[in-house]
Write a structure and sequence with these properties.
126 residues, mainly alpha, two-stranded antiparallel sheet, two-stranded antiparallel ribbon, 56% helix, 9% strand
């Protein structure tokens, strides 16, 4: 069964509020759901699926990350930068995206606004 259909079927069967295909990919990586046809759009076997508590935890973690994170376009907007400028700033500061290519909002807000001036100040002898 395709990911979207499998996610919907499991959500309905177990009374879960929201199951996403990304949750099924993570469950498959953990060996908790069988993939019948691997690839870019895998097919899943949901018959006999019993790891409901773990599926609930995976979904909760996904929703928590989504709420605490932002994409690079929003990160750039928050800092008043272009997406390219944000990418360069993130690289200079060692900020890496997490799951789904998103950045932790608190880490983005903590970035120096003008890193080149900040670094230049640190290099100047006192």
């Amino acid at each position: 069964m395709p990911g979207k259909e499998a996610a919907a079927a499991l959500a309905q069967r177990w009374g879960l509020r929201d199951v996403a295909p990304a949750d099924l990919r993570e469950m498959a990586e953990r060996g908790l759901i069988r993939v019948t046809c691997p690839g870019h759009c895998p097919l899943y076997d949901v018959e006999g699926f019993t790891a409901v508590d773990e599926l609930r935890r995976v979904g909760d973690a996904r929703r928590e990350w989504w709420a605490a994170s932002i994409d690079r376009w929003d990160a750039a907007a928050i800092l008043g930068l272009s997406v390219e400028e944000f990418g360069a700033l993130a690289a200079r500061c060692g900020l890496q995206p997490g799951r789904f290519g998103r950045y932790h909002r608190a880490e983005v807000v903590a970035l120096p606004r003008e890193p080149s001036q900040e670094m230049a100040r640190r290099r100047q002898p006192r």
